[in-house]
Design goal:
The protein is an alpha+beta fold and 204 residues long. The protein has three domains: 34-111, no CATH class; 112-141, no CATH class; 143-204, no CATH class. It contains three helices and twelve strands; from the N terminus they run ααββαββββββββββ. The chain has helices at residues 2-20, 37-44, 72-78; strands spanning 55-61, 67-71, 79-80, 96-101, 104-109, 118-120, 126-130, 135-136, 150-152, 161-163, 188-192, 195-199. The strands form five sheets. Strands 2-1-3 form a three-stranded antiparallel β-sheet. The chain has a three-stranded antiparallel β-sheet with strand order 6-7-8, with no helix packed on it. Strands 4-5 form a two-stranded antiparallel sheet. The longest helix is centred in the N-terminal third of the chain and has 19 residues, at 2-20.
Length: 204
């Protein structure tokens, strides 16, 4: 009787263990079934996908111990979702999304839609918000947006200010005098109404 109970308990234990363990089954085509290539591709290549909905990001790949991004079918069998990689899927700024690009699952920057606002430029033309930061495009006649965009036209006795990068005269030798009508000795550049303007002319 004790032997019978022992065998019964042992068989029950085997049954419980087999039911609680999720089998890893490779999809092998059966003789009377068509070959399911997409399924095989997804299990053999974790990154393979056809559409965005095939992809998922998160968890740890049990095969490589790396943070996982790839297709959902592979993840069902080989990814431990009890562990996560902070910022891996969304980025530190939270601006990444998981997509299928050329049949490869990957993270890419989100494309944010800008508000439909418009800005009227001094010449009457209109610009709209654009780019990843949704900033207004520069007006064609805008020389600057902040004072730092403006510099002296020359390193020697400058008489006006110009947009940075448009300096035309760069003398190697210059006298130390402060000439009247120049921006010597305390003169500065400022951005006023989108234009570079000289201020504090000497003797002015």
């Amino acid at each position: 009787m004790k032997l019978f109970n022992f065998v019964l308990i042992f068989l029950l234990f085997i049954f419980v263990v087999s039911c609680s363990t999720k089998p890893i089954i490779e999809p092998v085509p059966q003789p009377n079934q068509p070959y399911n290539k997409p399924v095989v591709d997804m299990l053999q290549n974790p990154l393979f996908c056809n559409v965005d909905a095939d992809c998922i990001c998160g968890g740890i790949d049990r095969q490589t111990n790396d943070c996982f991004i790839g297709n959902k079918l592979y993840a069902d069998y080989y990814v431990d979702n009890s562990q996560q990689c902070p910022d891996f899927c969304t980025g530190i700024a939270g601006n990444l999304e998981t997509k299928c690009v050329d049949h490869v699952c990957k993270t890419s920057p989100m494309i944010r839609a800008c508000t439909e606002e418009a800005k009227v430029c001094p010449d009457g033309s209109v610009v709209v918000r654009q780019g990843p930061d949704c900033e207004f495009a520069k007006c064609l006649d805008v020389e600057c947006t902040v004072d730092a965009d403006c510099v002296f036209e020359s390193t020697c006795h400058p008489t006006k200010c110009v947009p940075r990068g448009q300096e035309t005269v760069k003398e190697l030798i210059c006298t130390a005098e402060c000439r009247p009508g120049t921006l010597d000795c305390g003169g500065s550049c400022a951005c006023i109404d989108d234009k570079c303007v000289g201020q504090n002319y000497f003797g002015g």
